[in-house]
Specification:
Elements lengths: L7 E2 H7 L4 H8 L3 H8 L7 H11 L6 E2 L3
Parallel strand pairs: 1-2
Helix pairs in contact: 2-3
Length: about 70
């Protein structure tokens, strides 16, 4: 399906890597509470961390869906 943009939640991306919230938080150098808030869309993600998340999960920034 050319031209279709797929967007994935952080939870979906984490599940694809078979990682726990704790593991992702440690890998990114943030607290598990912060990562949990991002997954639940409770807290805004700084643009520098959005880039880090995209690189970590191997996706483009616009493929990440931040709204639960």
């Amino acid at each position: 399906m050319d031209g279709v943009n797929y967007r994935f939640s952080l939870k979906e991306l984490r599940a694809r890597k078979n990682k726990t919230q704790q593991q992702v938080a440690e890998d990114l150098g943030i607290s598990v509470q912060t990562y949990n808030a991002w997954e639940k869309d409770i807290s805004n993600v700084a643009i520098s961390k959005v880039m880090a998340l995209a690189k970590y999960f191997g996706v483009k920034i616009d493929e990440i869906k931040f709204v639960a």
